[in-house]
Amino acid sequence: MGYILLTLWLTLLPICVGSLFPYPDGFQTPLRLLKGQFLLWALFQLITVPIVIAQGTLEQVILVYVPLCLILGAAGLICVLKRKERPAGLKASLQALSVPDKYENRERKLLFFLVLALWLFQMIIVVTQTVYDGDDSFYMAVANLANTNGSLYQINPYSMGTLELNYRYILAPFPVWVTLLARISGLHTLTVGHVVLGIALISLSYLIYWQISGELFQNKISRLRFMLCICVLYLFGNTSTHTAESFLITRSRQGKALVAGLVFPAFVSVLLSMGNSLDKGEKPKAGVYVYTACILLAGCLGSAFGGAILLLFWGGVNFMWVVAYRRFRQIPGAILAAAPAAAFSLVYLLAR
Known about the structure:
352 residues, mainly alpha, 15 helices, 76% helix
């Protein structure tokens, strides 16, 4: 039952929450899932950090966060019903993979099954194999302590006694999110961190790269070739313990993996989308800035330094756009999108 609850929380709920965003090009279930999940991460960051600073408990986080998530999910479902949107069925999805030329059709199907097979292989490895990592002695210990007694960054995870609040860690409460999933599902914290998150985050990462491929290429074959390259890079990306692939596959329960494997690619996807819109002479819509703000906050959730790096990246790209496209009107939107994440960076600087 716990696995079913986690599946619903990590798939159905984000899809419903993601429906709050407008989608002029159709239902786009993967994009809804991504936007909904980043919005939920942003909400968790905004709620949890003040509670941790106030030396609150996990129960207080759950009391505030879970009802708000359900309210957003219900609101998104109402939006779907009002717009009378219907997701594409399996038959329509399979027809999208077919083209008139039979040889091209064969290549497309072959690429699709190769990508699917490599993804399944990675899922099997994540479930059946384990990797020792020294950082688990802090991150997973913090998560397990929060699950057993509700304390948030107040108990020394290495031995005994209490700790003063370390703003390097409390401003990036990703372990608390792992604890939340464990508390909701009833599963052990280590089970959620070592098994469930590996499956969920790697799969979300592939969805993000699928969105990136859509911004780079126009036809499905090129997109599938791109995804096949990503699969191969994931399998052979463990050239160092600090590559994004190593973090995502072997250390998915840590916030650094969230930033390196999901937040940065999602940020690149948004920048590509906005850049393509500017090339067409279109003005980025408000929903894009809201989604960007959610990605920046998700970066803060995973790592305090990761959020700061994203803010520098965001500022540099917008400065380039202002110079290249003479789009001075987009400056207020860019500032508003960066403001929530910048507040956490400012708190970190003031607390040191």
